Amino acid sequence: MDFAYDARTEELRTRLTAFMESHVYPAEPVFALQREQAEGDARWSAPPVVEELKAEAKRQGLWNLFLPGERGAGLTNLQYAPLAEITGRSPHLAPPALNCAAPDTGNMEVLSEFGTEQQRKQWLEPLLAGEIRSAFAMTEPDVASSDATNIETRIERDGDSYVVNGRKWYISGAMNPKCAIMIVMGKSDPSAERHRQQSQILVPRDTPGVEVRRGMRVFGYDDGDHGGHAEVVFTDVRVPAENLIGEEGGGFAIAQARLGPGRIHHCMRLIGMAERALELMCRRATDRVAFGKPIAEQGVVQEWIAEARVEIELLRLLVLKTAYLMDTVGNRGAHTEIQSIKIATPAAVVKIIDRAIQVHGAGGVSQDFPLAELWAGARTLRLADGPDEVHKRSLARRELKKYV
Ligand SMILES: Cc1cc2nc3c(=O)[nH]c(=O)nc-3n(C[C@H](O)[C@H](O)[C@H](O)COP(=O)(O)OP(=O)(O)OC[C@H]3O[C@@H](n4cnc5c(N)ncnc54)[C@H](O)[C@@H]3O)c2cc1C
Fold it and tell me: Residue 326 is inside which H or E element, if any?
């Protein structure tokens, strides 16, 4: 077993780390200021500094690293995982700068894998070029959407068109005026077998009948720089039949396919977030003195630091093993591991960031450190892409099957 990264990964890690130090971290205060000053539509778009970072990342060839094959950088999951980790250290800037931000990444993967030539030309190419943004619309306020078979939005065939009706929420990116296209999941045949009722269809955001109603909050944050998390209502939205992705009834299978890579990307970025939190925790504990000695000399703080390091190492090994399995036996063969990291990583990283906040005192929950926002982002990942409990249920069932 070889634990070293290969030469290409090492080379990209070195270049990406240099880009983070020379461009991304120095841009963080500029980004914060631009976000604070943004008004109107600009509130729901990435601030100008992100566009500057995008141009520089593209120039340096640090672009579309997430996408395997010739359309992207052609990296394996194992090669991309440590790079995604580095971008997680600055989750609001680095992933969009490299054109590696969710939900565009998942949408690009879907279009790349299941799209027609025309769909790829119209939507994948501008997404790969970073010219437009996109959204994925599955979750609905009126039904428990962690069980995707509950989805009620209708996608009905009518002549050469499909007509979409329904209400979605927490649709990341959809508030952004640059979000040109949404992949919408709905039911095309409610009488079909449970997992064949759903289809996915491309709906341009400017189609009549699409109403992007409001930005939902996440612990009070609007995530405006990511295009927010929108409530979207579809009323008699008519799109050409060619907009269907794959075949009618294939929506559930496509949704499953997009989640494997998405989960591993989230987990790697979470590890980067945990590394950043641990670094901040150590610096703050060393710098501040309370009751006559640096906070770092308190046994309890040392325990938190040690536990954080152990947990990060455990998580990274499991995520890398998962990436290796996805590359070698495929997403299906890595199912248990993908679920394991999705269960383990957000929960552990939330705890690490929480302790870093504690060590910072009031500063930890303030806008002067990235910790509060990191915590909010990590906490949502115990829900998004499937709540912990749903993954545990499914993992336990597969484990139990070995004994019945
Ligand atoms: C910041 C953020 C961004 C998001 N972005 C998107 C997006 O871009 N597109 C999109 O479509 N959705 C998005 N979502 C929605 C997310 O995917 C859903 O919230 C998630 O799938 C859960 O669905 P739900 O909210 O309807 O919860 P429900 O299905 O109502 O579940 C609520 C709770 O019930 C419990 N539960 C459910 N099933 C079980 C079980 N089998 N065993 C035990 N307990 C169970 C769990 O504790 C679960 O958290 C986002 C969410 C957030 C917070």
Answer: helix 299-328
